[in-house]
Amino acid sequence: MKRLIFPLVVLFILSSCENEPLESEITGFETELDMGKKNENKVTVCHKNGIEIIIAEAALDAHLAHGDAIDRDGDGYYDRENPCSEVDCDDTDAAINPSAPEVCDGIDNNCDGLTDPPVPGVYTVVMFDSYGDGWQSEQGILVTIDDTAISVTMQSSYSGGPPCCDWNTTTEYVEVPVGTEILRWQYTGDSYPGEVSFRIYGPDSAGTPLLGSFGPPPTVGLLPVYLCLE
Question: CA-CA distance, 82 to 100, in Å (whole number)?
Fold first, then answer.
């Protein structure tokens, strides 16, 4: 009987050792799952009954299908009519919501449906081209005045502009009528951006302030040009 005990003990130890890696792998796998759940993006939801909960982003579609409101940017305001807050007019930017201060930036910061009206008058755009053959761009600077868009550019020597290569600067004027609600400036790019630069000045009524000097090369996109009525 004593001779049988030793083999049985050895067999038990070997069996235990064989199981250890499997148990460790399972434990490690469960830990990774738990960590994944903790790292999921969370979104705050307002139910129609006024209860606010925090959910995983993966469950968002189901709540939207029920008509629940969501707060993606975490500013405490929800993206549609709801019993928890006023409506956030831009739920992708936490700096824009009904309690945000209105800033002179051409954006409706406090969701009252109004942007900052610009100072009316004649704005001056002084454009430069270091090579002297004008801008190689169809639109140049695109100016939006409410629903009207106009192009301000330094016409290329190769499409009707003055001959190359003494065409280094020109000045254009943009009239902004009284009552204008939206004024946006956008640079659309150029085939030779390193040659391009420009300055934008406000109207005489505001003292002709320099509102922005851009380039070379100017950054393509909306320009931070603001002169708002107080």
Answer: 19
